[in-house]
Design a protein that fits this description.
With 136 residues, this protein is mostly helical. It is 81% helix and 0% strand. The protein is built from six helices and no strands. α3 crosses α4 and α3 crosses α5. It starts with a helix and ends with a helix.
Length: 136
């Protein structure tokens, strides 16, 4: 009896699913719910990996900005392209920090220093050039 009732419900669900005018699709809904239940652990693991990847990217950007500022403090000259790259990295870093309402202490100070050096290089046209790089 239970098998017959289940078979009728499945057949009715398939007919309703395939009928063009009906918005509710019970078979597809049931399959989706079953898939959500089966994939729950995998979805949690993927979300955890995505979070860890974002944290790693943020830390990498932070390190790159601080390293560049340190390089400038040690009087190493840079090309305009290197400055442009670090500006893009900082913009991405800053957007993430603001979106997630995080604090930005050391990087803020380091980037302000980079900006001063960048402005000095623009004013004096003193970026490292390709020719100077070849001579080293």
């Amino acid at each position: 009896m239970c098998k017959n009732l289940l078979a009728i419900a499945a057949a009715l669900g398939i007919v309703v699913d395939l009928t063009p005018g009906i918005k509710f699709q019970p078979v597809r809904w049931a399959i989706k719910k079953l898939g959500d239940l089966l994939n729950h652990d995998i979805k949690e693991k993927i979300e955890k990996i995505e979070t860890e990847l974002e944290e790693h990217k943020l830390e990498s950007q932070r390190y790159e900005i601080l390293d560049f500022a340190n390089s400038c403090m040690n009087h190493r000259r840079h090309t305009k392209e290197e400055f442009d790259h670090i500006i893009k990295v900082h913009d991405s870093y800053e957007s993430y920090i603001m979106a997630h309402k995080m604090k930005n202490g050391q990087v803020k100070v380091a980037y302000e220093y980079i900006e001063k050096i960048y402005m000095h290089c623009i004013e004096n046209n003193s970026f490292l050039t390709g020719k100077e790089m070849e001579e080293k």
